[in-house]
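Tutorial handout. Part one gives the primary structure; part two gives the three-dimensional structure as tokens.
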Amino acid sequence: MRAMLLDTPRRLLRTADLPTPAPQAGQVLLRVAACGVCRTDLHVIDGELPRPKLPLVLGHQIVGRVVDAGGAAGLATGARVGVPWLGWTCGACEYCRSGYENLCPRARFTGYDLDGGYAEYACADARFCFPLPEGYADLEAAPLLCAGLIGYRCLRCCGDARRLGLFGFGSAAHIVAQVARHQGREVFAFVRPGDASARAFALRSGASWAGGSDEPPPDLLDAAIIFAPVGGLVPLALRAVRPAGVVVCGGIHMSDIPQMPYALLWEERVLRSVANLTRRDAEEFLPLAAKVPVRVAAVPYPLEDANAALADLREGRLSGTAVLVTQ
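Part two.
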């Protein structure tokens, strides 16, 4: 099969011809149709996530069809499914048993510990394969599996906040903004100062206000989500939320948070992170996305152009999500 392979961090991916994997117990073999490109992939490539399987097939927003069920119950040949970042958990630890399987200490992640979807075929644990809503083409469904799921988990952590700020308006934010508006919230978007394209994209995606991250919002926010991996945004977000407001850091990696006065956190403001996702998130969000309905801005790239897609993501040249297509 064709695949794009990472041999070592801080190197470009290379085109490789690999054996088609065989599903193990509990797994299915998928013919990959599309795979979203995520900033987490950049963190793996840059060595900021320190223990990837090497060599590695990246990619954790996989849309594929089952070609070999491998004895896994509940999935038939031909079924279209999505595979997210969380690829396996033990099911027995205190976190798995208490609804926090995303924190399982033995968890394995797609496109990190397990080969992912930058390839024509991929194996996945059947427990972490989700039916995808009709009405979404393969290209459009891929971003729902990380940008959508992580964004939804972040949104849940904001409680019933009515005025919601989104710092970093890209793949996740343009999906969350639509869900938030569907729930009756008002969305305020913060983009790179001077980025007129991102500002226009945010307004098209449902934001009632969009400005630079160095600008104060017109009203204090009830909550804010930081999607950009920039620690310097934390004090800005805390300054923008009201007393008892919540700031959620949605990335798997972030640059260091600068020293800041305690007064920004005082008055019972809450600063928290979101890690990974759970199956419950997928079971709730995917039907909700279809109900809204969420419109996904997806930019297709041939599989062999994975390095170009990653470069466009790194340089902020995308409005929406880059998606690799194999068919």
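Part three, for discussion. The two ends are 13 Å apart (CA to CA). The longest strand covers residues 27-36.
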